[in-house]
Amino acid sequence: MSGNQRGRGGGRTRRNAQEEPEGFAEAFAGDPNANMWAHMMHQHQQFQAQQAQQHQEMMMMFQQQMNNQQNQNMGGNAAFREFCRMNPPEFVGEYVPAKAREWIQRMGDILDSMECSEADNVNFATRFFRGNACHWWEGNKAYMVSSQIEMNWTNFKRLFISHYIPESYQFQMERELTELKQGNMTVTDYTMRFNELIRYVAEGNDAPTEAWKMKKYRFGLRADIAHDVSMQQSANLGDLIQKSYHAEAGLSDIRKERGEAYNRKKDSGKFNSQLKPKGSPSKGKQHHAGTFISILLCYE
């Protein structure tokens, strides 16, 4: 009994499983909208196929982008390694204008010697921020992005200088440049100080011309050197500086020769004075001897 029941139950299960697709298809047999449902099913299948194709295309594009990004990263890493080999300085965010000026100038010189994109220039330089400088850059980087300011070295430098080198300090440096004189400094020391101060003026709103810088440099030279270089034509500031070096060396040689000549003349005068007979004492002896003879003759 039980076996027959199990057999009949099992038979129904298998029969239902086999007839289920047919029953599913026959469910719409008497439906007047059967064509519509079939059309919808067909559209659904086409939509799934399109989605699968789009997904495949997106994956291919993503893979291609990843490959391009890896290639760019490899090139960027090579450029960054080259940048690191130049020993760029770190900046910790100290509010010392002189140190900030030295850092931004050194970084600019290094980046000028490389062929990098404007964005890489900023990225490489800021990789050497430490401490408070990192915090400052996080805020300003977000500001540049939100304000749609182009990420280039010029804009970055402007933000950096306005924060770490206040206008009052720049005005002080400009005034020192106006009053700068060579005095007892060598041409080398004077030129170094001049170049350091001229940077603050060159980056202002009214950048000086080459003629103005040459005039200011010549005006600060010592009178003898300034007179010498004024007698010559200088093409630019660098040419004027070279002529100042030559004038200083020439004047130094002249002073050295004059000093040696004076010492020779002085030494020669002492030598002659030592060889010259002492006239006064000998005349005195002769005078006393003559007096003594006269006395003897009188007694005779």
TrEMBL record:
Coiled-coil intervals: none
Highest taxon above the source species: Eukaryota
Pfam families: Retrotrans_gag
Region (Disordered): 1-29, 261-287
InterPro entries from the UniProt entry: Retrotrans_gag_dom, RTL1-rel
Domain Retrotransposon gag: 124-222
PANTHER family: LDOC1 RELATED (PTHR15503), ZINC FINGER, CCHC-TYPE, RETROTRANSPOSON GAG DOMAIN, ASPARTIC PEPTIDASE DOMAIN PROTEIN-RELATED (PTHR15503:SF42)
Annotated protein name in UniProt: Retrotransposon gag domain-containing protein
Organism whose genome encodes this protein: Trifolium pratense
